[in-house]
Design brief:
CATH topology of the largest domain: Aminopeptidase
Number of domains: 2
Strand content: 15-25%
Helix content: 25-40%
Radius of gyration: 24 Å
Shape: globular
Strand order of the largest sheet: 1-2-6-3-7-17
Keywords: Hydrolase, Metal-binding, Plasmid, Protease
Largest sheet: 6 strands, mixed
CATH architecture of the largest domain: 3-Layer(aba) Sandwich
CATH class of the largest domain: Alpha Beta
InterPro entries: Cyt/Met_Dipeptidase (IPR051458), Peptidase_M20 (IPR002933), Peptidase_M20_dimer (IPR011650)
Structural class: alpha/beta
GO molecular function: metal ion binding; peptidase activity
Protein name: M20 family peptidase
Distance between the termini: 31 Å
Pfam family, one: M20_dimer
């Protein structure tokens, strides 16, 4: 039997025996909420009690690191160096999850218990991101079992703060370039374009979040006595927000309209199938001259995440003294990152909203990145995955969401290949998060094949 055949038999047995589900249940049972202080001890336990034993059993040497950011979550690195002449693959995962949202999951489900219903496995972190790095690590293990060695060098970094904006990760990578030195980056996060077909993306949209505030006075004033006499901060804020896009969501801040939707990127996006989100899309929302794929993978989008003025749950007849909206811009390569908020300031001043204050968030900000979709490593990975599962992967120039990919693409200067193992309807960041069992089995086969090809063929030549 070939390496492909032997390793595939092993990885399929791993899934079909129930061992995959058991491993994932253990990881999901850790309440690793990085956005809640109660998760702090579990962030450490995930690395020390779950990840390190798994990696060490695979012949990796592990190191635990304090986060460069004060009070930042811990980081684990691991390496298996077989021969310095061999290529080195760096992989990544994050073991932290968003808030559990207890009480909001439907009856019969619990955030930190892996529950099987048909082809679905429910649990917080099941899709984002625990299943994803579990699949990649077990795929490497299948190669080791099949031939007694990996056939390339491997390094792994597991962080525990991605859901809080990856605090300290960029600083850590900058300070540890030699430790993390590699030839290619291969990891998994985010959703596939279609649940039944693999996806490769080579970067991600950036994301910057901020508040817009209008603070006119202390306290509230009776709406009967002062209506028509006092400016309404909520009204001012609403009009300011409405000036940022038109009624269809098309961006009106000139500097927020990117320059990177080139003919080649349009060609790549045009080849994609319809985006299977599991949700009915609003076809008349967003940039009207763009296709749906171009809107989410090739353009910028502005969103209002939350708004408050007065007491929404118990309104009174009063004009509030202040109003606030939490906003976010998702942006692609070709947007001047350092000018995003200054450009908004200029726009608000130009349109008469000088009373609106911009408050930048200290975290939850990621730069935009993109590897050329014609890069040799993209072609290599695509051919390997098609050979393993019989379906050509959908290739995206970048994910619609945001990831700390700049740490690997810019700081470590690596070609970045992301192969996501979830799908758009997985309810990540929401109650009822889950993964699909058929997707997971296919992903195990695809990644095992990709690592087998790297072991036998080495890296593609430029």
């Amino acid at each position: 039997m070939t390496l492909h055949d032997t390793a595939r038999t092993d990885i399929e047995r791993y899934f079909d025996s129930g061992d995959f589900q058991s491993d994932l249940a253990t990881l999901v049972s850790r309440p690793t909420e990085s956005q809640d202080p109660r998760g702090k001890p579990h962030l450490h336990a995930y690395l020390h009690e779950d990840m390190a034993p798994m990696l060490e059993a695979m012949g990796f040497t592990c190191q635990f690191h304090d986060n460069p950011t004060p009070d930042g979550p811990p980081i684990l690195t691991a390496e298996r160096i077989e021969d310095t002449a061999l290529p080195t693959v760096l992989s990544y995962g994050h073991g932290d999850v968003v808030r559990a949202q207890e009480g909001q999951w439907r009856a019969g489900l619990a955030p930190f218990e892996l529950i099987e219903e048909g082809d679905r496995l429910y649990g917080r972190g099941a899709a984002d991101n625990k299943v994803q790095h579990l699949i990649n690590l077990r795929a490497m293990e299948a190669i080791i079992k099949a031939q007694g060695h990996l056939g390339f060098n491997a390094k792994v970094i597991i962080e525990m703060g991605e859901e809080a904006g990856s605090p300290g990760l960029k600083e850590f990578c900058t300070a540890n370039i030699d430790l993390l030195k590699a030839d290619v980056f291969i990891a998994s996060d985010g959703p596939r374009l279609r649940p039944d077909a693999p996806t490769i993306f080579t970067g991600s949209r950036g994301g910057v979040s901020f508040d817009l505030e209008v603070n006119l006075r202390e306290g509230a004033n009776h709406s009967g006595n002062f209506g028509g006499l006092l400016a309404d901060p909520a009204m001012i804020l609403a009009h300011a927000l409405a000036s940022i896009t038109d009624a269809k969501g098309q961006i009106k801040v000139p500097e927020w309209r990117p320059t990177s939707l080139t003919p080649r990127i349009r060609e790549v996006l045009a080849s994609l199938p319809a985006h299977d989100t599991g949700i009915e899309l609003d076809v008349d929302w967003g940039e009207q001259d763009l296709t749906p794929a171009e809107r989410v993978f090739g353009w910028n989008s502005f969103a209002i995440l939350a708004m408050t003025s007065g007491v929404p749950d118990a309104p009174v007849n009063a004009i509030a003294g202040s109003a606030r909206a939490t906003c976010q811009l998702r942006f692609v390569v070709g947007t001047e990152v350092h000018d995003i908020l200054p450009a908004l300031r200029r726009h608000l001043d130009r349109t008469g909203f000088d009373k609106v204050k911009i408050v930048e968030h200290s975290r939850n900000s990621f730069p935009a990145t993109r590897l050329d979709p014609d890069h040799p490593m993209v072609r290599f990975a695509a051919a390997s995955i098609k050979n393993s599962v019989g379906i050509a992967p959908d290739i995206l120039p970048n994910l619609g969401g945001s990831l700390p990919n700049d740490c690997f693409a810019e700081v470590l200067e690596l070609p970045t290949i992301w192969v996501p193992h979830s799908y758009a309807g997985c309810s990540q960041h929401a109650p009822n998060e889950h993964i699909l069992k058929p997707l997971s089995r296919q992903a195990l086969v695809a990644m095992t094949g990709l690592f087998a090809d790297l072991a036998e063929q080495g890296l593609p030549k430029d």
